[in-house]
Amino acid sequence: MRITTALSAATRWSSFAVLLVLGVPAVSHGEAFRVLDQGAAASGQGTAFAAQADDPSALHYNPAGMTQLQGVQFYGGLLLVGGSYNYTSPAGANYKGDLDGSIAWPPPIHFYLTASLDKYDIGFLKNLTLGIGVNSPYGLMINWPQNVPFSALDTRATLPMLDIKPTMAYRFNDYLSIGGGLDIYTFASIAGEGAGQVNSFIPPSTNVELRVKDTAVGYNVGVMLTPWRTDGKPRLNLAFVYRSQTTLNLNGNFLVNGGLLADARVDFTLPNIYTGAVAYWPIRDEEREWKLEVDIDYADWHSFKQLNIQLSNGVTLPEPRNWNGVFIAHVGTEYKWLRPAVLPDWEVAARFGYIRSQTPVPEQTFEPAVPDANYNSFSVGLGFLCKDQGRFLGFIKCTTPIIGPVGIKGIGFDVAYKNQIYESRTITNNIRPIVNGTYDTILHAGVMSLRINF
After folding, report:
1. In contact, 144 and 87? CB cutoff 8 Å
2. What is the pTM (predicted TM-score) of this model?
3. Which residues contact 126 (CB under 8 A, 6 or more apart)?
4. CA nearest to 26, candidates 39, 17, 36, 18
5. CA pair distance 347, 380, nearest whole angstrom
6. Which of 200, 206, 234 is CA-nearest to residue 53?
7. Does pLDDT of 53 surpass 50?
8. Which of 375, 400, 404, 381 is nearest to 389 (CA)?
9. What span, in angstroms and rounded, lies between the C-alpha atoms of 42 and 61?
């Protein structure tokens, strides 16, 4: 009888459990739960970076840009996100959610390593650049109070999904480069045990857990065209990037109050994403560089139709989504001083950016665990690259031999601040009336990245 009652409750309120499959150690920071910030230099420019792509984060933003990188280069860092989620019920009561704390933890990370073969006399392969990266491109972290009216949907996710990115790029000539690689989406124990937990309050004191995981492989392709150069440097870049749809067949267990109710399976589809971008440098000489860039993403969330939980006892818990395809516009600029008088051995960059995003989540299937809405985002950033006779942190030589010809040729760091202001969204016609009400969200993010050139 206990199991039957639990199954009935799970059938009525299955959405709280199915939301677990979206959880990773990150916070929703793009349309729906896509994390746009995968490097501080890009974040400072509103992630308008696909046509510039001139640091190792090109591995994510446009793999074709890797051909601009000399030698071996490392770029890595993290994203610290804070903010609040606010809900006002139709009766006027107010409730505040957070990121399971003041800052989402563990934070989303990004690590990239690229190696150019241009110094080796190996024929046509000298135009090849290889790379490997790890980042968190999708994320969800949200915690509502237990007394919120939709407490049956209250979720806490701990699924640590990562994207491992083996990548390569080839430079045909000064005007054309292409790149591509794999996106290996998986769950790793470095940020948890690959399992999620939800506290459900229907019936009271019921603890429901959905533990699922999988590894799935997608791919990405990038193209960079440079029709205009001066003194060998790009003045105009055109870019196109495609990231493939990928389906994770998540398998695991569905538990109620710690006891196994049934084995479970959930199929979760990540969208096709298309990006077109143009970057123009009005100024690019030996002393200064000024870049302007516009990127347009189209995220085809039409494939995200449902998140049904299929139980081994033959029961299917239906969860329609029916999300929409959306456009995201990124506008960014970077002004760089190559030899400032006060820091002659440094390059210093100032960055600004703006993002306008639509939401793919329709009103009927809106859910408190993804309280998405159209949003505006503003960002600022600074970048520093130390080389020649400069000293990083005042005492580390920025040009340091290690073994023979191998050594450090430059050390840099980038920082960025970004806010994300969602439009107030009032839900009145949800398939679960308990969700109806007004949602207001604002997020803040600090991004930090370290760069080492060998």
Report:
1. yes
2. 0.89
3. 117, 118, 119, 120
4. 36
5. 17
6. 234
7. yes
8. 400
9. 9
For 192-227, write each residue's pLDDT tens digit. 333 433 433 345 556 667 777 889 999 999 999 999
Extended beta strands in 231-364, E state: 233-243, 246-256, 259-270, 272-284, 288-300, 309-311, 316-317, 326-337, 346-357
Alpha-carbon distance of 224 to 53, in angstroms, equals 9
Query: What domains can you pick out in the chain, each with its CATH number?
Result: 2-331 (2.40.160.60)
* d(C-alpha 111, C-alpha 38), whole Å: 9
CA angle 248, 253, 256 (to 5 degrees): 135
Cβ-Cβ contacts under 8 Å for 329 (sequence gap 6 or more)? 294, 295, 296, 297, 355, 356, 357
Which two three-digit tokens encode residue 385? 């690259």
Q: What are φ and ψ of residue 303, in 5° steps?
A: -70, -15
Give the integer Cα–Cα distance in Å for 14 and 16. Answer: 6
- The overall average pLDDT reported for the chain is 87
pLDDT in tens, 388-447: 888 888 888 999 888 767 789 999 999 999 999 999 999 999 999 999 999 999 999 999
In the block, residue with structure tokens 């960059």 = 349
Direct distance between the N- and C-terminal alpha carbons of the chain, in angstroms, rounded to an integer: 66
Query: How confident is the model at residue 300, as a pLDDT?
Result: 97
Dist. CA 426–CA 416, nearest whole Å: 32
Task: Provide CB contacts within 8 A for 383, sequence distance 6+.
Answer: 40, 41, 44, 334, 336, 347, 348, 349, 351, 412, 413, 414, 415
Which value, to the nearest 10 degrees, does the dihedral of the CA atoms of residues 187, 193, 195, 199 take? -140
Q: CA torsion, points 355, 449, 159, 272, in degrees to nearest 10?
A: 40
Tokens of 7: 């199954």
3-state secondary structure of 427: strand
Which burial class, exposed, middle or buried, applies to 4 when counting CB atoms under 10 A from its CB (0-12, 13-18, 19+)? exposed
Check if the beta carbon of residue 40 is closer than 8 Å to that of residue 75: no
Contact 380, 40 (CB under 8 A): no
